[in-house]
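thought: fold this chain, then report.
action: predict
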Amino acid sequence: MLNIVIFGAPGSGKGTQSARIVEKYGLNHISTGDVLRAEIKNGTELGKTAKGYIDQGQLIPDALMIDILASVFDSFKDSKGVIFDGFPRTIAQAEALKVMLAERGQEVSVMLDLEVPEDELMTRLIKRGLESGRADDNDETIKKRLLVYHSQTAPLIDWYKADGKYCHIHGLGTMEGIFADIAGAIDNVIG
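observation:
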């Protein structure tokens, strides 16, 4: 199986590029944001708990997220692979993901890091908030999310480099150009 971690700050284009990867390579997509928003919309206990963290711009506890992801991952029968979008976000989560996959005879094939300058991220997220009405895309929450990203999530770059799975993707330019770089990286992994 081809298991991809797509990585980048909020607004870096993970969702957009994940959709293209799914279409080209026939993979399943696990977006922690989508999974959590569905739980919140359905008013589940998990959703209520998650909403409290999200509204404060904080991360969901690791044990909760890995249980959700394991359940979703296991639901994909005869899958060619999975894109993990929005997870892991901390080294502890990366370690938990590695264990969860190893228990299933799997591993992360590549971590694609979409790098976008912070001023561009702010512009994209404010625009997305205006277009989609997403409550978490406002100036104050965006700044908190980027601060959390830099302090807790960015260290994953070095972790995946040490694990030999890291691939830098320049996240500015046309969607097609960025995707061409992503496809090249995936094709290198497939061999």
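thought: worth noting. The CA atoms of residues 28 and 82 lie 5 Å apart.
final: tokens above.
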